[in-house]
Every structure is written in structure tokens, then in C-alpha cells.
Automatic annotation (TrEMBL):
SUPFAM superfamilies: HSP20-like chaperones (SSF49764). InterPro entries: HSP20-like_chaperone (IPR008978). CDD domains: ACD_sHsps_p23-like. This is Hsp20/alpha crystallin family protein.
Length: 126
């Protein structure tokens, strides 16, 4: 068995190790919560020990990918994924106003809804 000598890596990864799940071969996921509000939904991802620089949020059409990566000081070219999860956003999402906030140990994605109400469509005459 090869020992890991990067102490900073061990300190960061220690938050994600759960002995009972690791023995059973399981994978630990951070706590994820979706709070629905009147004008928006907020996706909350609890990431203890993970800085904002380690987080990445990618929007591709209506799929939101949230991930956290660890870069080893010994191997700067390689990154180790700490967390990776995809979320499908509803069609009534205002994609132009999405915003991401990292505060403390939490990453929050604010997902605003489109303006509600009927829309009168213009009739073109040919």
C-alpha cells in the first residue's frame, strides 16, 4: 500500500471519508438541498473544507453540473474529483440570471424562475 504524503490533501479529503461506507465500498456525497422560493429555487451544496477555487459549476442547455476538484501540490497537472453531480433544471428557469455564491462551507446556485403570466403574441401579416 502506498502512503499519501500530501498533508493538505489529506486534510481536505478527510471531510469526505466515512469509515462505515468506505468499508462497504460506498461513495460519500455532500449534503445537497433544493429550497423552492416564490421567485427562485436555491440549490445548496454543503462542501466542508473546499474553497471557492476548487469548485466549478457548468451550465449546458438545461443541465447544471456542480463539481469540486482537488489539485495535488506534488502533481499540479492532475486533479482529483471530490464531488460531481448533474442536475436537470426545469424549463421555466431564467438561464440568463443564474448566479453562484460560495460562502463558508456552502455553495449556493440561485435559479430564478421566468416571469409568470400570459404573454400576448404578435400576429404577423403576410
Amino acid at each position: 500500500m502506498k502512503l499519501i504524503k500530501d498533508k493538505k490533501f489529506l486534510q481536505n479529503i478527510a471531510h469526505y471519508i466515512d469509515l462505515t461506507s468506505t468499508i462497504g465500498g460506498g461513495v460519500i456525497q455532500p449534503r445537497v438541498n433544493m429550497v423552492k422560493r416564490k421567485k427562485e429555487a436555491v440549490l445548496q451544496v454543503l462542501l466542508p473544507g473546499v474553497s471557492a477555487e476548487q469548485c466549478q459549476v457548468i451550465l449546458d442547455k438545461n443541465q447544471l453540473t456542480v463539481m469540486a476538484l482537488h489539485q495535488s501540490e506534488q502533481h499540479p497537472a492532475g486533479q482529483i474529483p471530490l464531488f460531481h453531480q448533474n442536475f436537470l433544471l426545469p424549463p421555466f428557469t431564467d438561464f440568463t440570471r443564474l448566479r453562484v455564491v460560495h460562502e463558508g462551507h456552502e455553495l449556493r446556485v440561485h435559479i430564478p424562475y421566468l416571469a409568470q403570466g400570459p404573454r400576448v403574441l404578435e400576429i404577423e401579416q403576410q
